[in-house]
TrEMBL record:
Database matches in SUPFAM superfamilies: Histidine-containing phosphotransfer domain, HPT domain
Protein's recorded name: Histidine-containing phosphotransfer protein
Annotated PANTHER family: HISTIDINE-CONTAINING PHOSPHOTRANSFER PROTEIN 5, PHOSPHORELAY INTERMEDIATE PROTEIN YPD1
Function recorded in the entry: Functions as a two-component phosphorelay mediators between cytokinin sensor histidine kinases and response regulators (B-type ARRs). Plays an important role in propagating cytokinin signal transduction.
Predominant localisation class: cytoplasm
Length: 68
């Protein structure tokens, strides 16, 4: 799009096509961001549950094996 705008005779059809392509790409980025946000939320909840269970195990006198 930048190259098309720098030309002496600007091809506005090319600029318009580039704008539409950029808009479509942005839409996909938003969907990807929403997906990542959702996945992060799920993972965060699962890890919080795991840590809570580990704390309960330790509080009951058990132990958690370490990661090597």
């Amino acid at each position: 799009m930048a190259r098309a705008l720098e030309q002496h005779g600007v091809d506005f059809k090319q600029v318009d096509a580039s704008v539409h392509q950029l808009k479509g790409s942005s839409s996909r980025c938003l969907r990807c961001l929403q997906q990542v946000t959702h996945e992060y939320s799920l993972l965060k909840n699962k890890l919080q549950n795991l840590f809570r269970l580990e704390q309960q195990i330790v509080a009951a006198g058990g132990s958690i094996p370490g990661v090597e």
